[in-house]
Structures are given as C-alpha cells and as structure tokens.
Amino acid sequence: MSDSVLKKQFKKHDVERLRNLVKGKTGDKTTTGIGYNGEESISYKEGDIWKENGKTWTIRDGIKENITKLDKFKSVAVPIFCPSCKGNMDKQLDPYYYKSYGECVDCRATTETQLKKDGKWEEYIKTTFNKEIDINIEEYKSFMSDMLSESNNNYITEAGDIQKWVGGIDKKRAKKALDEGVTYLKNLKK
Q1: 77 vs 98: CA distance, rounded Å
Q2: Cα separation of 28 and 59, whole Å?
Q3: In angstroms, how far is CA 72 from the centroid of its own chain?
Q4: Is 149 helix (H, G, I), strand (E, B) or coil?
Q5: What pLDDT sits at residue 122?
Q6: What angle is formed at CA 111 by the lines to CA 108 and CA 114, rounded to 5 degrees?
Q7: pLDDT value at position 9?
C-alpha cells in the first residue's frame, strides 16, 4: 500500500485551479500576471476613419479596411457571391446583371417571373420605361443648361493660341428647342 501513495507535491496554483474546477468556477484565474501591455488599445466602431502608420483606415460591415484610391472601383466590382441568393456569380451575364440590378441572372429571372405571376409585369415595365425617360429629360436639361451658360468669347487651340470667335448661341432658339425636346420626351411616356 505504501507504494501507491502519491509522492508528487502540488504547487499552490495547481491546488487553487483544482478547487475552482470543483466549485464550477472554470474561468477564474489562479495566478496574476504583470507586464507591459503596449499602447492603450483604441476601439473603433462602424464608419470611424483614422490614420495609423501612414494609412487611412475605416470599419465597414464590421471589418477593418484600408481606404485607398480604388474604393470607388470596389463598389463597382462584381462580388464572388450573389448578395441575394449567396450563390456563385460565375455565369457570363452575371456581371452585367449585378451592375444593373444588384443580383445574379438567376435571382433576376426569379424576380421577373414572380412579377409576371402576380400580374405586375406590365406595371413594372411601364414604371421602368417612364423612369428612363425622366432620367433622359434631366440629363438633356442639364446639358442644355451647361451649353447656354458656357462662354464662347475665347477658345484655346491645341497649339496654345487664343482665338476670339464672333457669334454665339441664339439663347431664345435654344430655349425653344429645349422645351420642344422635353415635350417630345414626355409624350413618349406610357
């Protein structure tokens, strides 16, 4: 019997750890640690922008990202997975459909099929067509406004010479053409 006696000595933290386990306090510490923790950690939240090591950072969708000149490209780039169905966007037309509708070809087909089943397809086509015309009208007005406000006193050639031209745009005639163009586009609406 004397051979089976445990001869190992336990350290204080081993005993404390065993007591904590028996009491159900599995997360309690048995030793205290000291040391240098480095700089005080700063926690950032969604949308914060800060500079660190010469780079600008932000948090988007819970992920720390570097802000670069290509951020505009990131928003245009086609993702690997469709945001709607989480499937691979590997079909030939997926990039075009994603840029237009924000989803893959299959999701768009499902959406359009559902619209047809519900009898809302004609209404959808009509509103989409009318929105396109409204966008064209606004772009046309903006273009004409820019052209009418443009000064045509001096022109600089490719060689760097300054030329003065006489004449200009007949603003009354341009305004009349603008009104006629807008009226024509509005008449195209369904």
Answers
A1: 9
A2: 33
A3: 8
A4: helix
A5: 94
A6: 150
A7: 77
Q: Report how far residue 158's alpha carbon sits from residue 53's, in angstroms, rounded to the nearest whole number.
A: 44
Residue carrying structure tokens 């950032």: 44
Q: Hey, how many other C-beta atoms are within 10 angstroms of the C-beta on 79? A: 11
Task: Give the DSSP letter string of 91-133.
Answer: STTHHHHHHHHSS-HHHHHHHHHHHHHTT-HHHHHHHHHHHHH
Per DSSP (E only), the strands in the chain are: 49-52, 55-60, 63-66, 154-156, 162-164
Non-local (6+) Cβ contacts of 148 within 8 A are: 169, 171, 174, 175
Upper half-sphere CA count for residue 151 (Cβ side, 13 Å)? 5
pLDDT tens series, the chain, 190 aa: 456 666 677 788 788 888 888 888 877 777 777 776 666 677 888 888 888 888 888 888 777 888 888 877 776 778 889 988 999 988 899 999 998 898 999 999 999 999 999 999 999 999 999 999 999 999 999 988 887 877 666 777 788 888 777 766 778 888 898 899 999 999 988 8
Taking the C-alpha atoms of residue 182 and residue 137, their distance in angstroms, rounded to an integer, is 6
